[in-house]
Amino acid sequence: MLMFLPLVVALIAADPVPAPSSAPAPATGSASSAASAAKPTPLTEIGRVRALPACVPIVAHANGAITQALDNDRTLAIISTNLHATDFDKLNVLQRRNAIDALMKQAEAMRVASSAGDAEVKKLREYAKASPDPKRKEELKTFADALGGALYRQKKAAVEFMRDISIMRGREDAQEVRDIMKTANPAPPLVATQVSVREMAGALPAPAPTYNKQMQYLGDTLDGLTAGILTDEGVAADHSVAATSGC
C-alpha cells in the first residue's frame, strides 16, 4: 500500500486537465496550434458570484455534479499511473494482492461518485424541463447532458476495470485449483489427456504470463476512455455559465 502514496500525493496536487495556453496561435497555422485549439475547455466549479438568487439551487446541483466529475478525473489518473508505473511482476503474492485491492477500492469509489453526480444531473434536467425560457432550457439541457455523459463514461471505466480485474483473478483461482487437483488427485491417463486437449483449445483460459502486460493494457484502456470524458466535460464547461445565469 505504501508504494502508492507518492503517486497519489503527486497526482492529487496536479490538475488532471491541462490548462489551455493563453499565448496567441502562430500565423503559420501549424498542426500543433490546430491541436491546441481543439483541446476541450477545462471543467471548473461555477463561481457563486455569477449566480442570481433564483439560480442558486441550479448552481448548487451543477457544482455537486462537477465536483464528482473532477474527483473522478483525479482518481482515474491515479489508477492509470499506478497501472503503468508499478512493477507488478516483482511484487510477491501478498504485495500484489494488496496493490490490486487498493486500485479496486479507488475504482469502486469512482463508480459510487459517478452515481452521486448523476443524481445531481437529473435535478438539472428537471430544471431545464421546467424553464420557461427556450434559450435557457436549451443551454441547461446541453450542459446537463454533457456533464451526465462524462459521469457515465467515468462509471463505465470504473466498472470495466473492476470486471477485467475480476476476470483475471478468476482465471488465476481456476488455474490454482487445477494445479492442486493435478497434484493431490491426479486424473486417470485418458481423462488427463482430454483435459489437456481442452486447455490447448482454449476452453480453459489460463492466466496471462506476466502481470505487467495485463496492467499496462488496462491502463491504456483507461487512457483511451479519458479522451471521451474530457470532451464531454469541455462541452459542459462551454455551456456552464449560460446554463446557470439569468434565471
| Helix and strand pattern | HHHHHHH
Structural class: mainly alpha
How many helices in DSSP terms? 7
Unreliable segments of 5+ consecutive residues? 1-27
**How many strand elements?**
0
What number is the mean pLDDT? 81
Tell me the radius of gyration: 24 Å
Describe this structure in words.
- This protein has one domain (53-203, 211-243).
- It is built from 7 helices and no strands.
- The protein has 247 residues and is mostly helical.
- The radius of gyration is 24 Å and the shape is elongated.
- The termini are far apart.
- The model is unreliable at 1-27 (pLDDT under 50).
- 72% of the residues lie in helices and 0% in strands.
- The longest helix has 51 residues, at 134-184.
Notable traits:
single chain, 247 residues, mainly alpha, 7 helices
Compact summary:
72% of the residues lie in helices and 0% in strands. It has helices at residues 5-12, 31-37, 56-85, 93-130, 134-184, 189-200, 211-243.
Walk me through the topology.
Layout: H1 5-12, H2 31-37, H3 56-85, H4 93-130, H5 134-184, H6 189-200, H7 211-243
